[in-house]
Amino acid sequence: MVFAGVFFSVLLNAFANWINRKTKLRYSFSLIVVVLLIAVFFTALFMLLGPSISKQLNEMVETLPKSLQSLQEKIKQTEIGRTIFDEVPEKPQDLIQDKSRCVF
Q1: Which of 11-20, 56-65, 95-104 has the lowest mean pLDDT?
Q2: What is the pLDDT of residue 45?
Q3: CB–CB of 12/31 below 8 Å?
Q4: SS3 of 98, please?
Q5: For a Cys staple, 29 with which of 25, 54, 70, 80, CB 3.0–4.6 Å?
Q6: Element holding 24 (H helix, E strand)
Q7: In degrees rounded to 5, what are phi and psi of residue 61?
């Protein structure tokens, strides 16, 4: 995390210095311009990609339970799969609370 912070500050500094040299603005104003440009960039990116990401997340929420159910049915078709599903309780919390089933 520290490395990311240092890396980001070095990038900010480099862009601010470049704007400072090209426009003769003071460094502090150049830094403000860089931060604003980054904010505008990520806002535009979010506005362009947000609806698509939202749609894909909604589709995933709809299809994931069906996919998990299908996977569970395929696993239960094997002998070891049936054994596993017979031994494991429906709710994983019950496994922690039911000490009689504990192997250790």
Answers
A1: 95-104
A2: 95
A3: yes
A4: coil
A5: 25
A6: none
A7: -60, -35
SS3 78: coil
User: Cα-flanking dihedrals φ and ψ of residue 77, to 5°?
Assistant: -75, -15
pTM, two decimals, is 0.56
C-alpha distances in Å from residue 52, one per residue of 12, 40, 47, 49, 64: 30, 19, 10, 5, 18
pLDDT-derived band at 104, boundaries 50, 70, 90? low
- Whole-Å CA distances, 64 to 6, 60, 93: 39, 6, 22
Strand, coil or helix: 35: helix
CA distance linking residue 32 with residue 12, whole number of Å? 10
Return d(Cα 17, Cα 33) in angstroms, integer.
11
Q: Looking up tokens 């031994």, which residue turns up?
A: 87
